[in-house]
Amino acid sequence: MDNMKNRQVILKTRPIGAPKLTDFNLQITAKPSIAEGEVLLRSIYLSLDPYMRGRMSDAPSYAPPVALEDVMVGATVCQVEASNNEKFKLGDWVLAYSGWQDFSVSNGEDLLPLGRSPKTPSHALGIMGMPGFTAYMGLLDIAQPKSGETLVVAAATGAVGSVVGQIGKIKGCRVIAIAGGKEKCEYAKNVLGFDQCIDHKADDFAQQLIDACPDGIDIYYENVGGNVFDAVLPLLNTGARIPVCGLISQYNATQLPKGPDRLSLLMGTILVKRIKMQGFIIFDDYAHRYDEFAEQMTHWLKAGKIHYREHLVEGLENASDAFIGLLEGKNFGKLVIQVNNPL
Ligand SMILES: NC(=O)c1ccc[n+]([C@@H]2O[C@H](COP(=O)([O-])OP(=O)(O)OC[C@H]3O[C@@H](n4cnc5c(N)ncnc54)[C@H](OP(=O)(O)O)[C@@H]3O)[C@@H](O)[C@H]2O)c1
User: Fold this and answer.
1) Which of 52, 55, 137, 160 gets mutated to test ligand 1 (max ligand atoms within 8 A of its CB)?
2) Contact between residue 10 and residue 71 where contact means Cβ atoms under 8 Å apart
3) Beta bridge partners of 46
4) Hey, which of 127, 221, 224 would you mutate to test ligand 1's pocket, going by the most ligand atoms within 8 Å of its Cβ?
5) Which residue, 67, 84, 165, 233, has fewest beta-carbon neighbours within 10 Å?
6) Each residue's pLDDT tens digit, 301-314
7) CA-CA distances (angstroms) from residue 108 to 80, 90, 102, 112, 341?
8) Neighbours of 287 (CB within 10 A)
């Protein structure tokens, strides 16, 4: 990195279908300077998350889109490289929302201090941050798991799903994981401790799910939608709960799925089985409960009850490719870009 320049990944074109490398552009600008009361942030880690696909689109959503030619948004873990703000010193670590770039300027109000020498700073983007919090609230507040229930979760080795399944085990559930490929499924069973893992790419995926759930499904934590949800729907028990967290299999879709309209099947199942299905957007709905989550998760991590896997990619120049891969299941764990070395 040239320490006088600021590399930025901007949104060049709005993708139609799957994003392409040409939808992004890596531009070089001057390193910003700071005024009184401001800090200069050096990005060390950048979080890549599925919601960013929504920000690339100008379709109405819960948050505004990234404007064309603007820097892609995203949470970062940064160090203070220069400070004109008495609350921050050179070298301090902070959680910021400074996007896909080397340097940014803040007045300090939007920063969460992470201390002088945090042991695992990037965890603020994963297990101790937005994805871990999402898993915790969606499962515990919306689904309210009980011991002995069957919990099904897809994207089960990813940032959210891996935590959902592990909290489910702590709460005494039988956890049936769904993941893409043999390696992820082995990890889900052998490291994360899930009872079974089914590969959603297998030809007989729906039959394998039936076999794995002889007592039906009490909780389906929805991360992916599409074919996985189609296989889950007929297996739902009376009183089942479905936290609707994400629908990643549909984020690149340009039209409704082909085939017969299944809305009446879905509504009929919800009615007859008295199913609770609830969407949520983590910080909009649960920001006030972050401290409760952080305290509990810190305790579980210290007790060795939660495993956390990070998929670290070196270099801001590789962020676009890594993000495209996230939507194809190429990440194995929480996807984080190492933007720069620490100070
Ligand atoms: N509501 C909220 O506030 C909130 C907050 C955070 C995340 N989310 C949602 O939670 C979900 C998981 O996010 P994450 O950050 O934890 O990502 P992640 O699981 O770390 O990575 C995405 C994973 O999705 C799976 N996937 C991708 N395309 C798929 C397809 N067509 N069919 C089935 N699975 C597919 C892949 O896993 P496999 O290879 O195992 O299939 C991929 O590794 C996403 O839907 C995201 O939008 C929602």
Assistant:
1) 160
2) yes
3) 76, 337
4) 224
5) 67
6) 999 999 999 999 99
7) 10, 13, 17, 8, 22
8) 9
Q: Which atom of ligand 1 is nearest to the CA of 335?
A: 20
Specify the CATH superfamily of domain 130-283: NAD(P)-binding Rossmann-like Domain (3.40.50.720)
Six-digit token pair at 311? Answer: 């998929």
CB-ligand 1 contact for 52 (6 Å cutoff): no
- The CA 222 to ligand 1 mean position distance, Å, reads 9
User: Is the C-beta atom of 104 inside 6 A of ligand 1?
Assistant: no
SS3 204: coil
User: How far is Cα 148 from Cα 155, in angstroms, rounded to an integer?
Assistant: 22
Atom of ligand 1 nearest to the CA of 50: 47
pLDDT tens digit sequence for 102-114: 999 999 999 999 9
Query: Can you give the residue ranges of every domain in the chain?
Result: 5-126+309-338, 130-283
Q: Give the pLDDT confidence of 128-182 residue by residue, as tens digits.
A: 999 999 999 999 999 999 999 999 999 999 999 999 999 999 999 999 999 999 9
